[in-house]
């Protein structure tokens, strides 16, 4: 089955969020670029509640740096909104705890998707969670 639109960008964002190294990110980015998908990933870690703003900012900066979005309110707002949506899905598990992991961002035409993959918890007793947000932009 060939995926199109939001399903394809969701798959790409999740795959970017699951990469284990910068080298893996670059290989995947190049593969996605051949399919017309621009993508980015960025690591993050910290206490969840106090980190929400920083996570959103990092997603926007990474998306701009990798050419996923342009420097417009519409594009920045789409990434911010999709990131907050993804974070809201993991919030019940993450409240009051530390998170660490990666944010993946993908765009194809008017579809932008953000995936967050985080380990949540204390020490080695982590839970894992993934959140996904999508926005359509003109």
TrEMBL record:
Family classification: Belongs to the HutP family.
Molecular function per GO: RNA binding
Subunit structure, interactors included: Homohexamer.
Keywords: Activator, RNA-binding, Transcription, Transcription regulation
Species whose genome carries this gene: Thermincola potens (strain JR)
InterPro entries in UniProt: Regulatory_HutP, Regulatory_HutP_sf
Cross-referenced SUPFAM superfamilies: Hut operon positive regulatory protein HutP
CDD domains listed in its UniProt record: HutP
Name of this chain's protein: Hut operon positive regulatory protein
Function, as annotated: Antiterminator that binds to cis-acting regulatory sequences on the mRNA in the presence of histidine, thereby suppressing transcription termination and activating the hut operon for histidine utilization.
Keyword RNA-binding: yes
Record flagged with keyword Transcription: yes
């Amino acid at each position: 089955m060939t995926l199109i639109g939001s399903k394809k960008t969701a798959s790409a964002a999740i795959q970017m969020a699951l990469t284990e190294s910068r080298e893996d990110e670059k290989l995947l980015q190049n593969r996605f670029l051949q399919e017309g998908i621009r993508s980015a990933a960025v690591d993050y870690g910290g206490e969840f509640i106090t980190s929400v703003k920083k996570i959103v900012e990092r997603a926007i900066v990474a998306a701009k740096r990798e050419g996923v979005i342009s420097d417009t309110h519409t594009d920045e707002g789409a990434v911010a909104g999709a990131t907050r949506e993804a974070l809201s899905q993991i919030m019940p598990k993450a409240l009051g705890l530390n998170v660490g992991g990666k944010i993946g961002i993908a765009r194809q035409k008017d579809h932008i998707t953000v995936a967050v993959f985080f380990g949540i918890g204390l020490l080695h007793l982590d839970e894992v969670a993934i959140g996904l947000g999508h926005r359509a932009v003109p």
